[in-house]
Amino acid sequence: MTHSPVIVALDYPTAEGALDLARRLDPADCRLKVGKELYTRAGPALLAQLHTLGFDVFLDLKFHDIPNTVSRAVSVAADLGVWMVNVHASCGRRAMTQAADTLAQFSAPPELIAVTVLTSFSQAEFEEVHHGERLEERVSMLAALTQDCGLDGVVCSPHEVPRLRAERGLNFGLVTPGVRPVGSDAGDQTRIMTPEQAIAAGSSYLVIGRPITQASDPLQALHQINLTLGAD
Ligand SMILES: O=c1ccn([C@@H]2O[C@H](COP(=O)(O)O)[C@@H](O)[C@H]2O)c(=O)[nH]1
Prior knowledge:
By secondary structure, this protein is an alpha/beta fold. It has one domain: Alpha-Beta Barrel (TIM Barrel). The protein is built from 10 helices and 8 strands. The chain has an 8-stranded parallel beta barrel, surrounded by 7 helices. Helix 1 links the parallel strand 1 (6-9) and strand 2 (31-34). Helix 1 (15-24) crosses helix 2. The radius of gyration is 17 Å and the shape is globular. It binds ligand LLZGTKA7. The active site is at 60 (for ompdecase activity), 62 (for ompdecase activity), 62 (proton donor), 65 (for ompdecase activity). One of its GO terms (biological process) is 'de novo' UMP biosynthetic process.
């Protein structure tokens, strides 16, 4: 069990690349996230290997489908022993409630969280797909719905954290990608903050990928982040 809020996003095209880093990391220093790229390649066998290494694993497949499909998918994720799994909040009340009810039947269910608005979206890009809506209003509305459906938290940008913490309370998980240490490239992310700012704002967990995985020394990059957060 780690005291660090960092979840390292293992966005690699092969199991070998991901395992090469995972074997050098210590589960005392971080959790790991497996997303669509790596899971599409390596599937449940890779999850089993990461569990054998001692890591808590967030399976980030962002299920977005009809209620029956979403609840069955999170049930399989629970069977695979992951620590956290997610859906899109915009799949709606019935899908989220059914997923939460399904997981409640497990003795040690994974945390179930819902994506609000992807951290890559700027307000302008958001308006192209949600005409006339304010991004932060939608995040707030989806977080309220997610909590009402009995889920454990949401994925949002650190920018939305102060408002959501105030609206949803201290026990609601706020998992934030869009985290960039000073000097690192934003890449395709737009709503970003530094690790220290995100934790000060009230984030529960920080999802950090490329600033660690593409660093010349990924272990040192993680160590430096944990140090600045007092989690070393
Ligand atoms: O809104 C979201 C939801 C998920 N992600 C995922 O987090 C990581 C971030 O990686 P970086 O390299 O630190 O940008 C990545 O796996 C995304 O799929 C997100 O960024 N935003």
